[in-house]
Amino acid sequence: MIKIENVTKYYKTNNKVFTALDNVSFEVSKGEIFGIVGRSGAGKSTLLRCVNLLETPDSGNIIIDNQNLLDLSAKELRQVRTKIGVIFQHFNLLNNLTCYENIILPLKLQDVNKSTIKNKAHEIINITGLEPYLSKYPSQLSGGQKQRVAIARALINQPKVLLSDEATSALDPESTDIILDLLKKINQELGVTILLITHEMDVIKKICNRAAVIDKGALIEQNNVINLYTKPVQAYTKELFKLSDCDKLTSLISKQLSFTKDETHKNPLVELNFIHDYSYMEPFISVVSRELNLNINILQGNINMIQNRVVGELKIVVKTDEDDKIKAFLEKAQNSKVNAEVLGYVS
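RE: above sequence
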């Protein structure tokens, strides 16, 4: 549905050239929710503006629904843009129009007849749950309600693609969850392909099928969200998804750690990684500790829900110096679909 090929964008400031996007390429499949994630200034918003040619790339191709937007005339581009909805961080509503008038504004600007406007608005208002607020003005709405109005306006032309530029960044956590649930509903019920720009890792984890990581204008890694979270290739990605809590041992343990077993360092420090469906979760550590008569000390842990799956990482000390028990522990981990790796030994 969306194909970005070798897109580069430069800006000239004070006789210097700044590379905002550096040879960026990725594809978004039809019906997918695809995230672009990175820190502020990474080039996320510039990339999104290039997707519908609010910014013109200096090189590369922007292909949406098999049409290269850079090959279109101004008239053809205006027509294509009616099928590309956009929602922004700060809503961009007109304060002198009611909620309903804001929603239908794109159709009025196209001189669509009143009957068609009414029919299209009815469907979108039902999906977004805005019926109680139609006669209110933006100043009378909460941030989450304003964003729902902005989403309804973006959907009024029945777009094939929805571009979301930090749509939840200005919202409180409860409103963020409501908006993310709404985006998932739109994707599932209307089949709209969503390209979502954010710096919030929780947004990516909650609703995206796949995501790409952007840093200093370059797309450095892309994968499905679970693999980005559990098996990042780039150090920047690892840091971005905040695995550092489990990657960095406390200074006390680091000082005590030996990479080889000796008379002083006998107890293995083990890292456990697991991905399970919520319904399939088993108390692995408690079961194995009873079966093998082991004492296990949990040092650090990080548990997340991603796409209704439990994704976790633990660092534990298995308090035994018996090689047979250590081997049995690692085998039981493998049989339980838990990846286990001995990182070293502690006293």
